[in-house]
Structure formats: C-alpha cells, structure tokens
C-alpha cells in the first residue's frame, strides 16, 4: 500500500513538475533597445564602400523602426538594426528561443515578400581580428515575416554560423560551430535579394525565452528525486521489516507468557500448547508451514518412580523439560502432554530437519547428569504438517511413531514417513 501511494505521489509530482518547468518557470529577457542597459543603432553598407543610408526612428509607442534607402553600386547592399547590451555580453545558453514582433517592407528581386536576416553576433578571444564589427561570429536565420502570426518564435538551435564568415575567418576545431555564450549584439538586417528603394524594418518587441531551470537539469533532478524516493522507501522498508521482527519476537514472548504452564516443569501443558498454536497461526498463518511435531516419552519412567520415588521422578521430568527447552530455538514450542510425555512443535521446519534436531536432543540426554545417578533416555516420534488442515493428523502420526520407537527398543527417533 505504501509503495502504491509513493508511486502515485511521484507520478503526480513528475507530471506537475514537467508542466511547471514548461509553463511556470519561464524566464524572459526583452532585447528591443528599450530596456535599461540596451542600445539600438543602425548600420548600413556605407562603411563598406556602398551608398545605402539607414536611419533609426523611435515611434511614440517605443517601437524601433529602421528606414533604409538601398542604393545601387555595391555588390551586397544592406542595412541593419542592431541591439547591443551596454553591459557587454549575454549568455544565451540559458535561453531556448527568440520571440519577435517584427514587420519588414521593401522591394525584392523575385517580387516576393521581404526577407529578414537575424544575426546573433558572439565573441571569443580566439576569433581572428579585434573582436568588433565583422570579427564577431554571426549566427544567422533568414525568413520572411509577411503572413506569419506574430510573434515569430525562432529556436536558438536554428541559428547557424554564416558560411561567408566561416570562409573568411578560419577557426581551430574547438571554436567551430555555434557559440552563444558571449553574444555582443543582435541584428535585424535586410535580406540578400533587395532591390534599390526604401526598406523598412519595424521591431515592436524582441524577447529571449528560457527556463529558470534548464529542462535537462530539471529532468535530472526528477530522476534523482525518483532514486532518492526509492532509496528512502528501501530504507523505510528495511526499518519496517526490523520492526516486524521485533514485534514477532514480542509476540513469541507473549505466546510463552499466555500459554498455560505445567506447574512442575514450567513448560506449557496441553491446553497451553493449544493456545500457543492458535496465537502462532493467527500471527504467522501459512508462513508457519511446513511444521513438524515431535513426541517425546521418557523411557522406563514408571521404574524410576517405583525404585526412587516420586520426588526423583519429578526431578527427572523437570530436568528433561529444561533440557529440551534449552536446546531448542525460541520459536519452537515445548509442552508437557501428560505424565512423562512431552510434545515439541517446530514451525517452518520440515520432517527431515526435525529428525536431525531430535537426534541431537537424544544425544544431549545421554550426556546429561540425572538425579540419583540415573541414565535417562527417551523415545521420539516425528511427523510433518504441510498446512493447518494437516496439523491434527501430524499430532496423531507423531504419537504413533513414538510408540513405534518404544516398541522398537526405545532410545531412538522414528519418523512417521519412515
């Protein structure tokens, strides 16, 4: 039950966590030239030998608009609106996408919709040049905003290093490919198919989107939560098992206290054994089986009473009971069945093991110093009960096996299955 609740809680936590990481842990950074520490400016091809001219107009609503007069006479005419952070560099690896509210107008060679080139320009000390202008590595995406639903969302993984820059700025292998951890500028430029004329790029808003906790880091945290929860469950289960064992030991002690004792030998009498068996089966159920029953009868006990008196006979019975109890595990039950006859009940013990225990006990009796210098032996009968329904039959079979041992010469162990 606990494991099911734990799994249900982990599943709910995981689903909520994934949803929260996707929708509630979003971080945004506006990059539209209006935020503190940002600067908007325009760049055109006049600095490279062209004649185009760009100007920046800030609308009353705060939108940044670049008006660009593309003029012929330069191979690759362009104008671009550039946003730079005043603090120097941005680490875009903490973000996943760039959202743009942007419109573009201007004549194109193919008479198609005006294209927009978006550049993320990054710096590294290992790049050739002086780390400014064209020496910044451009990561580029080209698309036509016309007809698209705003905002347009560009995944940062879609930005690729411009091929023309890679050809003119050879890099060592470790510096090849996209690098967005030190971005110094974001540029919005006219496309490569522009015709002379007026071109307009209006940037209403641009923002970087990411998660406060990166999805891969968050998922790793969820995996660690699962592992920690399962480890905690295993620790708890181990503690619970030990607690159950302690309770089992207390129940065993309670069984012994509750059982009715024989006043002479201080072991359970027949009624006490029945009570103890009832409690054992209630506590452990089918885990008690296979269960073995051993009947023990002192040999020639009438002769002991006749020749040495009942006091010596009582001492023999008491010592016999104490010897049996002292040489058995705590979970085994010992009871005086009547007269000089005793019964041993061994839970979770097959007949073969019970026979071996009886043989060991028989040898112990031979080494025991008895009152009045007597040599006391016993006859043993063993039977196995596979389940609770077979317990009564096992008692009869063990009793019969004991009588077979007595008729077979005494001082021996006989199994009902032999």
From TrEMBL:
NCBIfam families: GGDEF. Its EC number is 2.7.7.65. Keywords: Membrane, Transmembrane, Transmembrane helix. Residues 289-418 form the GGDEF domain. It catalyses: 2 GTP = 3',3'-c-di-GMP + 2 diphosphate. The chain crosses the membrane at residues 220-241. Pfam families: GGDEF. Residues 35-58 are annotated as: Disordered. It comes from Pelomonas candidula. PROSITE patterns: GGDEF (PS50887). It comes from the Bacteria. CDD domains: GGDEF. This is diguanylate cyclase. Signal peptide: none annotated.
């Amino acid at each position: 039950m606990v494991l099911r609740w734990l799994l249900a809680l982990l599943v709910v936590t995981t689903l909520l966590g994934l949803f929260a990481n996707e929708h509630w842990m979003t971080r945004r950074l506006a990059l539209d030239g209006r935020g503190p520490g940002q600067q908007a400016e325009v760049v055109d091809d006049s600095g490279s030998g062209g004649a185009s001219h760009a100007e920046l107009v800030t609308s009353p609503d705060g939108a940044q608009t670049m008006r660009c007069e593309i003029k012929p006479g330069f191979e690759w005419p362009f104008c671009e609106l550039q946003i730079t952070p005043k603090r120097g560099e941005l680490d875009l690896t903490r973000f996943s996408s760039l959202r743009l509210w942007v419109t573009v107008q201007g004549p194109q060679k193919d008479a198609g919709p005006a294209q927009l080139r978006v550049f993320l320009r990054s710096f590294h000390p290992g790049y050739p040049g002086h780390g400014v202008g064209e020496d910044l590595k451009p990561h580029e995406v080209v698309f036509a905003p016309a007809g698209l639903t705003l905002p347009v969302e560009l995944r940062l993984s879609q930005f690729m290093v411009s091929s023309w820059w890679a050809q003119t700025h050879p890099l060592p292998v470790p510096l090849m490919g996209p690098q967005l951890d030190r971005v110094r500028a974001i540029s919005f430029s006219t496309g490569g198919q522009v015709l002379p004329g007026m071109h307009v790029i209006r940037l209403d808003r641009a923002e970087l989107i990411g998660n406060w906790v990166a999805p891969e880091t968050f998922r790793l945290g969820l995996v660690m939560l699962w592992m920690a929860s399962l480890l905690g469950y295993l620790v708890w289960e181990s503690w619970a098992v030990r607690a159950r064992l302690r309770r089992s030991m207390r129940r065993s002690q309670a069984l012994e206290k509750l059982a009715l004792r024989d006043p002479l030998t201080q072991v359970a009498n027949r009624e006490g054994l029945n009570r103890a068996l009832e409690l054992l089966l209630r506590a452990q159920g089918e885990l008690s089986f296979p269960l073995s029953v051993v009947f023990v009868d002192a040999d020639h006990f009438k002769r002991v009473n006749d020749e040495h008196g009942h006091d010596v006979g009582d001492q023999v019975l008491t010592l016999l009971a104490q010897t049996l109890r002292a040489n058995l595990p705590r979970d085994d039950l010992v009871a005086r069945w009547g007269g000089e006859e005793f019964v041993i009940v061994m839970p979770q013990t097959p007949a073969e093991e019970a026979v071996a225990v009886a043989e060991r006990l028989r040898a112990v009796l031979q080494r025991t110093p008895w009152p009045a210098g007597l040599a006391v032996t016993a006859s043993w009968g063993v039977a196995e009960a596979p389940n609770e329904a077979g317990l009564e039959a096992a008692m009869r079979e063990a009793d019969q096996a004991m009588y077979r041992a007595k008729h077979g010469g005494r001082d021996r162990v006989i199994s009902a299955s032999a």
